[in-house]
Amino acid sequence: MQAIEREVKYRKISAYKFAIAPMMDWTDRHCRYFHRLLTRRALLYTEMLTTGAVLHGDRRRLLRFDPSEHPVAVQLGGCDPGALAASARICADAGFDEINLNVGCPSDRVRNGRFGACLMAEPALVGECVAAMKAAVAVPVTVKCRIGIDDQDPETALDALADAAVAAGVDRLIVHARKAWLSGLSPEENRTVPPLDYARVYRLKQRLAALPVVINGGVATVEQARVHLTGIDGVMMGRAAYKEPWRLLDVDPMLFHAPAPAATVSIVAEAMIPYVERETAAGVRASSILRHLVGLFHRVPGARAFRRHLSIASVKPGAGAEVLREALGLVRSGAALADAAAA
Predict the structure, then answer these.
(1) Which residues does 51 contact at the CB level (< 8 Å), separation at least 6?
(2) Model confidence over 147-180: pLDDT tens digits?
(3) Least buried of 50, 102, 288, 325, by fewest C-beta within 10 Å?
(4) Which of 31, 79, 105, 129 is an active site residue?
(5) Cα Rg of the chain, angstroms
(6) Rounded CA separation 185/190 (Å)
(7) What are the pLDDT digits (tens) for 104-127?
(8) Where are the domains of the chain?
(9) Preceding omega of 212 cis (within 30 degrees of 0)
(10) Single pTM value for the model
(11) Taken in order 194, 129, 15, 212, is the CA torsion positive or negative?
């Protein structure tokens, strides 16, 4: 019975049509806890973890997550099939719902380690890595890639990568619809400068109809995600989800026809207060948590004061949940003043 329930659970996870992208220095456990208060249905991802960190680092710290984060996937960086298989097994045993292989990050550190976007040039190796991970775990194994790198032709490069992954049994392919330029562009520029080519991802889906394909890159609104979902299996939102988290309250109603977890972003902020109290009591700095909430309010009286107070007060010694309470008070004061002015 447990095996059947697990299989059904993973089938449901593989069908998730909206995800928040794994982002280095951004999607830590505090961010994911916060995002889960905004959407129950989105699939959440960790920051990328290297196989070296998983195998030899502080696993208790690296793999820690709150049970409320489910469904949550871990993204791994590496190129050795054996190390990836061992890391995948550790992560699955830790309770992650999906193991994702990074074949898209263009940073120098990643490139020097022979993983990330540079693996677009080695589709056979990617296939070996996926096959090893699939043999090691029962949870879905997915790949996140680009449409190509440097002077590669995206038509042939993406097909070669996808075909190798499919032959190895990959459960889903997430495609950032841009090339990555490993020479000449910084990681930040690689997220914006190479032009988006959504049509290339759609052609991949048409060619491999049975492969669940998720599109990523430049998705700024939930409305845009809904349009993509008319022709593709899933959408992944990155920077917009982080910098403008208020948008996530629309995900469940608009994409899943389900109620939002909260009626307003104010309710979400209030729900974060016990979490901040708990984590700061355990020694976590308030700024490590509250930095994720800075963009929560949008075009409401007091939003600027909210942002400023979180940014300044949260880094002070001894800062705790009172910083969030005070920031919320500034929003309420701004709204009251606006109402008075309109009366």
Answers:
(1) 76, 77, 78, 80, 83, 84, 86, 87
(2) 999 999 999 999 999 999 999 999 999 999 999 8
(3) 325
(4) 105
(5) 21
(6) 6
(7) 988 776 656 678 999 999 999 999
(8) 2-256, 265-338
(9) no
(10) 0.92
(11) positive
CATH number of 2-256: 3.20.20.70
| CATH code of domain 265-338 | 1.20.120.1460
Query: Which of 167, 170, 169 is CA-nearest to residue 145?
Result: 170
Q: Which residues of 259-297 are buried (b: 16+ CB within 10 A; e: fewer)?
A: ebbbeebbebbeebeebbeebbeeebebbbbbbbbbbbb
Confidence of residue 266 (pLDDT cuts 50, 70, 90): very high
Q: What is the DSSP letter of 65?
A: -
pLDDT tens column, 60-81 = 999 999 999 999 999 999 999 9
CA 86 to each of CA 100, 116, 166, 321: distance values in angstroms, whole numbers, following the listed order:
14, 18, 21, 39
Q: Is 118 an annotated catalytic residue? A: no
